[in-house]
From TrEMBL:
It is an enzyme of class 2 (transferase). PROSITE patterns: HIS_KIN. It comes from Nibribacter ruber. This is histidine kinase. The keyword Nucleotidyltransferase does not apply. One of its GO terms (biological process) is cellular response to phosphate starvation. The chain crosses the membrane at residues 6-24, 34-52.
Length: 345
């Protein structure tokens, strides 16, 4: 029951008693009796209603004063004007619901971040473990006597070195991604020709592609140059990541096409392969840190990536105000696209 309801009932009761008393008194006329009823009812109503509200509010104020300063700022919707306005209980209930909902949101977000952090830590330790254990194994085997055989010694030392190179690559990638995520990396933009960059990268990757019998193609039209305004070093890193993946997950004797299309404002960059493809359910997830479709794939530490390649590429492309789009069909191949700002010649 609301304070208004209680006030109405009490006022009616008091007014009824007084009117009943007046009814038996012969000195008053009918009109005066009705007037007395109305007057008694209204004054009673106001009196009961406001004293009740004031009483409740006094209690609430005591609770409210008890809240320390930090908590109090959550009650910003509650002002001092609050005091003499009706239904303080209803409003304080709304305040508390509002605050609870806000706190719940904060808790959910913190929980999500903590889960991500835990997952990241687990992933990092797992990734670090692989090359460290490998190198450790080779070195201990050498110390245990394998060193005496020159052939075995060289082979094991080379393998240990390869593992440590992989470890170095992983740590470099971790540093890069943490800087990109912190947002402290500034893109050093300059005007450069994508075609020249493509030739540079092809030279670098040709041997690796040839080992799988893969041919790299640069799809060129009549245009001589593809000038863009971007961070050359970082875009080189993105293209190497995408082409390297196309080789790693491409089919033997397959093909990889790199192509550019210059628009007035944006230049479209496309990397296409005819490899194993990416199933639909993995297409957005492969851009997450350490996400791999084939979880069991044991990374051969020298040639394999760190599992961070696409996450790093995504960050770099986003820092150029674009996104990487994927289009892929299992068994047919994968296309990855992004855009860069076209530069004036
Ligand atoms: P890594 O290659 O080191 O595992 P990436 O972040 O570069 O890490 O790629 C994440 C995952 O996405 C890969 O493990 C692979 O499963 C999948 N992937 C990436 N590129 C391709 C591609 N061109 N074709 C098929 N799968 C791919």
């Amino acid at each position: 029951m609301t304070s208004k309801g209680i006030a109405v009932i009490i006022s009616l009761l008091v007014a009824a008693i007084i009117t009943a008393y007046l009814l038996v008194s012969p000195s008053l006329e009918f009109k005066e009796r009705i007037l007395a009823l109305g007057f008694t009812f209204s004054s009673c109503f106001l009196l009961v209603y406001f004293s009740y509200e004031a009483l409740i509010f006094k209690e609430i104020n005591i609770i409210y004063d008890g809240l320390d300063k930090t908590k109090r700022k959550d009650f910003r919707r509650m002002s001092n004007k609050f005091l003499w306005r009706p239904e303080p209980l209803k409003r304080i209930k709304e305040e508390i619901y509002h605050m609870a909902a806000q706190k719940q949101k904060e808790i959910d977000e913190l929980k999500r971040l903590q889960a991500l952090r835990r997952e990241f830590l687990a992933d990092v330790s797992h990734e670090l473990k692989t090359p460290i254990f490998a190198a450790q194994g080779f070195i201990h085997t050498l110390l245990d006597g394998a060193m005496d055989d020159v052939k075995v010694r060289d082979k094991f030392l080379q393998k240990a070195a390869k593992s440590l190179d992989g470890l170095d690559e992983l740590v470099q990638d971790l540093i890069t991604i943490s800087q990109l995520e912190k947002g402290v990396v500034q893109m050093k933009k300059s005007t450069f020709d994508l075609r020249v960059l493509a030739h540079e990268i092809f030279e670098q990757l040709e041997n690796k592609a040839a080992l799988k019998g893969i041919t790299l193609h640069l799809e060129e039209d009549e245009q001589d140059t593809y000038l863009v305004q971007a961070d050359r070093g970082r875009i080189k890193q993105v293209l190497i990541n995408l082409l390297d993946n196309a080789i790693k997950y491409g089919r033997e004797q397959g093909n990889i096409w790199l192509s550019f299309y210059s628009g007035k404002k944006k230049t479209l960059v496309t990397v296409k392969d005819d490899g194993r493809g990416v199933p639909k359910e993995h297409q957005t997830r492969i851009f997450e840190r350490f996400y791999r479709i084939d979880k069991s794939r044991t990374k051969d530490t020298g040639g394999g990536g760190s599992g961070l390649g696409l996450a790093i590429s995504k960050h770099i492309v986003e820092a150029h105000r674009s996104t990487i789009a994927i289009e892929s069909e299992v068994g047919k191949g994968t296309i990855l696209r992004f855009k860069l700002p076209t530069a004036k010649a």
